[in-house]
Amino acid sequence: MIKHRIMVLDPGHFHAALPFMYSSPRIDEDIHVYAPQGQGLDSFVGMIGTFNQRQEAPTSWRLQIHHSCDPLGDMIKERPGDIAVLAGKNRLKAANTAVLAQTGIHVFADKPLVIEPQGLRFLHEALKSNAVVLDMMTAREEPLPRIQRELIADNELFGGFDTSAGDTIYIESTHCLSKSINGRQLIRPEWYFDVTEQGEGIVDVTTHYADLALLMSGADKSLPEVKLIAATHWATLVSSREFRAVCGAEHWTESIRGAVRNNMLELMANGEIVAECDGVPLRIRIEWRQQSMPGITEGINLICRGVNCTIAVLRREMGSAVLELIPRPGKEHIVKMALSRRRERFEPIPGSTALRLHVEGNPPEHEAQFAATLNRFLDYIDTGVPEWEKAMLNAKYTLLMQAKAAAQE
User: Distance between CA atoms of 300 and 81, rounded to whole angstroms?
Assistant: First the structure.
């Protein structure tokens, strides 16, 4: 088995560490980190340390730290690995990806890979190289959305998308700025609140949902035609006290002062995109809050309306989710017959024609999906990346850049 060697470029986001939450026989235990001294590096080292020191299934990563004022240049010059992991400031991520890919280094990048329209040029250059370039689309690995895609692909059951149903594909998600990871309060870097570095919300978390929408439209077989209809964005208000609690800074940093009014940061974190995929209406809506509130938790509602039934992944309290199937009136028998030929087990919901998927055991934590996504990336390096994956990467970010431009008009 080929053991791949990992290099991490200037880790500024906790997603840089999550792919290494578990040991892997496919990865050398020495991880080379190129970064200047600072909070980002310290946080990365600390999180890897918790993975190595935990009681249950500890990892055994050995960090090789290369302190550098030019981490990209030194990484390319010394090149102790064949894979670069990018998770941090997003402004230069597309340009850095192109440089690394053109030197033959594979790139595994946190989303968003592109946050400004000019970044599309760098993405195109990277995709022309012989290196594998992939963003961390962990939502693909979530169990319920995966089952949902399989059910939608069953034409006898779903009957194809119902394009007369308004928002045929409706994706809505809620997120919190304050959260804990691996039992520890997450401290976000100050630049996370600077949309010129992190990117607006409409081009950030939406990458996951544009990715899912394209997959549900069959992009892994034939890339659908994607057309933007409309887009909008709006701010989440963050007080100085909340800013201090999340990132530890005593005062507003200079880079975000322009977005502070009446001592409240107007963080452009929320957005809505209306589009069509091969004529199938799509709506994506994301919203960020400071912290979870009663009745409102982090998670996703992913609703797909078909000719025979609606199939929905719905969030519940404490981050859990359920998958429900609702037959269309007069289609109950068709749905029942189609389900009888499938392996999934559905249970009736009392007082309703709807059915709920029976799930054995507890689903894996969201953070565990990073390791699964890394495995898919390693498969692409070892056996070749499919052309549809490259085409989807380009189509997804093109849509998001169009949405950002439309929202700012």
Answer: 36
**pLDDT tens per residue, range 245-260:** 888 888 898 999 999 9
What is the biggest distance separating any 2 CA atoms in the chain, rounded to whole angstroms?
Answer: 66
Strands 264-277 vs 280-289: parallel, antiparallel or unpaired: antiparallel
Amino acid (1-letter code) at residue 276: E
Q: 3-class DSSP state for residue 306?
A: strand
- The answer to whether 369 and 23 have CB atoms below 8 angstroms apart is no
The tally of CA atoms less than 13 A away on the side-chain side of residue 196 is 6
CATH fold match for the domains 4-135 and 140-368: no
Q: What is the secondary structure of 226-253 as a DSSP string?
A: EEEEEEEEEEEEEEHHHHHHHH--SS--
Q: Report the CATH fold assignment for 140-368.
A: Dihydrodipicolinate Reductase; domain 2 (3.30.360)
Q: How far is CA 24 from CA 3, 11, 27, 140, in A?
A: 9, 20, 6, 20
Q: What is the pLDDT of residues 193-214, one digit of tens each?
A: 999 999 999 999 999 999 999 9
pTM for this structure? 0.92
Angle subtended by helix axes 143-153 and 206-216, to nearest 10: 30
Domain boundaries along the sequence of the chain: 4-135, 140-368
Q: Which residues contact 121 (CB under 8 A, 6 or more apart)?
A: none
CATH of domain 4-135: 3.40.50.720
**Which long-range contacts does 344-353 make (Cβ < 8 Å, 24+ apart)?**
344/147, 344/151, 349/324, 352/326, 353/326, 353/327
Sign of the four-CA dihedral 254, 256, 260, 265 = negative
